[in-house]
Amino acid sequence: MMTFQKPFFMFKKPLHSIERRRLIQLAFWSTAPCLAALPIASAQNASTATPPKSAAPQLNQGKVRDLSWDDLIPGDWKPEKLLEGMNFALLQDGDPRANEAMAKLRELWDKAPAVASLHGQNVRLPGFVAPLERSAKGISEFLLVPYFGACIHSPPPPANQIVHVVSSEPISEKTAQAAVWASGRLEVLRFESALGVSGYRMPQSKVQPYQAKKN
């Protein structure tokens, strides 16, 4: 049975510097999928960017590949190296180095790289829903995230841990309150919204309530 990892995260509201220091340390004790997520600047309008040239469509029309959130992180992406050499135990209240570290982490999450080889693959990924668009029929556009409350009750994770999903059929509010499977053609495409920056997109996705895979 699949389990969802509970990440360490930072909050949008200003924190006492000691608490911020502790949370920064916790961020780098964890592995990449559980890295601390920092607030990003809210975009006035959603925008997209062209996929990198290295992300040529694979046109995978065969069997759907089940992905984990680990699969969305490039093997050579080592964000923990960003703060190497900084001794957080020595940081005091009001120390500008703490604010500097926070700013660096924020930039790092926004620019987190995607796995180019996944572009064009037919995949299935489990996660939680952060709605972007609601209507009387339900939710048709949302951010798929690895843990409940991301981008809503807590700041967004790195861009390579967020998928912008456009559902082929609106899903109900009830479905959106629990884990789901999102299936479809994955694109390496950056998307900015008021809820977060995503590094992947899944248009015309089929969204279903999550059920553990049978052995």
Account of the protein in words:
The structure is a single chain. A five-stranded mixed barrel has the order 3-4-5-8-6. Strand 7 and strand 8 (197-209) form a beta hairpin. The protein has three helices and eight strands. It has 215 residues and is α+β, with helices and mostly antiparallel strands. The N and C termini lie close together (9 Å). It has helices spanning 17-29, 96-110, 173-176, and strands at 47-48, 65-66, 122-135, 138-145, 163-171, 180-185, 187-192, 197-209. Helix content is 15%, strand content 28%.
CATH topology: OB fold (Dihydrolipoamide Acetyltransferase, E2P)
Poorly predicted ranges (pLDDT <50, ≥5 residues)? 1-59
Give the number of domains.
Answer: 1
Proportion of residues in extended strands: 25-35%
How would you summarize what this structure contains?
This protein is of the alpha+beta class and 215 residues long. It has helices at 17-29, 96-110, 173-176, and strands at 47-48, 65-66, 122-135, 138-145, 163-171, 180-185, 187-192, 197-209.
